[in-house]
């Protein structure tokens, strides 16, 4: 839907520049996925997509950027595009003295994630003050890779995720090499970073450089439109969900597998332990329900974020003060493959977040047949229908969440009916919408490709 109103090049990177295999022998899965001649739709590969994102999962950090990886993997699998990912990573010496930054040192330079080749060039970043220089540093680090991939014989398009810093870096590279560019806005980059005067200029320039912009929510799309006017087409393509992995299951069996108590009702929330997610609000809402006589517990799935202090001590203190410490389960960080079990163990999913784009946790909970109680931010009001698959909470307060949770726990829900509200929103359908944007951009740039766009429309 469209809104109308550096470091030296490593050996692995040199291989990429010559258009040959992207990883060493033994990683043939990557070569066949990124250099294939025929896509899974049975059609020949027509163009190359060079995707850029600083947030992208790896075998070292499997959680950050999973929604970015899902979309790129789906485009690579289900469309006529051959995708390669450039995931710029801050340089840090391999000395284990600061966990937050040392994690960057042990990130693989080359990797395979969901069948797509990932290259991680290092760039220089100075903590706290380096953010205003990040786009330039990333562009310098990624330039040799982009130049090499653009020379592989297929029409090439840059696909940047998050307008800043990756989108701003990709805009520099698009201008330098004359490549078409699509930028996806996902949340903080458009909602909060744009309030910084210097970053606002970078963000606006990047969007005006792009041939098209994609927003994962209508709210983000309208914000992008206000920045660029009518100069750039802005499409709304929300995230998708893997409906094969995320499916209804017996809550008793799920609780048994996880070692959770069988008795009482269970509210589940999933998200990093940061203030943004509002876990303290849900704990206080839980306490109100318990004081009203309800037998209900809360499970918080999620660990510490690398970019913010851990709120676990605060959350434990709130639970003790409210007298519900024994009813709050801090499950910590869980691998992505375990999440369907945690959703399945709950009776209701809750998200008291302050800001979102298109939260995958909401899509995943609904696909698992669990009603959702969540704040009216981002795409949530379009995903959750009151009384049909959950309740939207218009006011982010303890009182409002307690009332909405009470309603959700009292109502009888059909897991299949809840799931039916979201089951069509697969990653394959998302990939076809994204492909239609890419094809439209390439055609406007004069590239003649066979086939008809599959679905992104304007509003």
Number of domains: 2
Q: What percent of residues are in strands?
A: 15-25%
* CATH architecture descriptor name of the largest domain: 3-Layer(aba) Sandwich
How are strands sequenced across the largest beta sheet?
Answer: 1-11-10-9-8-2-3-6-5
- Looking at how many chains there are and whether they match, the oligomeric state comes to single chain
Tags for this model:
9-stranded mixed beta sheet; 459 residues; Rossmann fold; alpha/beta; 6-stranded parallel beta sheet
Could you explain how this protein is built, in words?
The structure is a single chain. This protein has helices at 11-17, 28-34, 66-78, 99-105, 134-150, 163-177, 188-191, 197-209, 218-228, 251-258, 279-291, 312-321, 339-345, 360-367, 380-383, 398-410, 415-420, 427-444, and strands at 2-3, 47-52, 81-86, 89-90, 110-113, 116-119, 122-123, 156-161, 181-185, 212-215, 234-236, 265-270, 296-301, 328-332, 348-351, 372-375, 390-393. With 459 residues, the chain is an alpha/beta fold. Strand 12 (265-270), helix 11 and strand 13 form a beta-alpha-beta unit. Helix 5 (134-150) packs across helix 6 (163-177) and helix 11 packs parallel to helix 12 (312-321). The longest helix has 18 residues, at 427-444. Mean pLDDT is 86; it is low at 4-42 and 450-454.
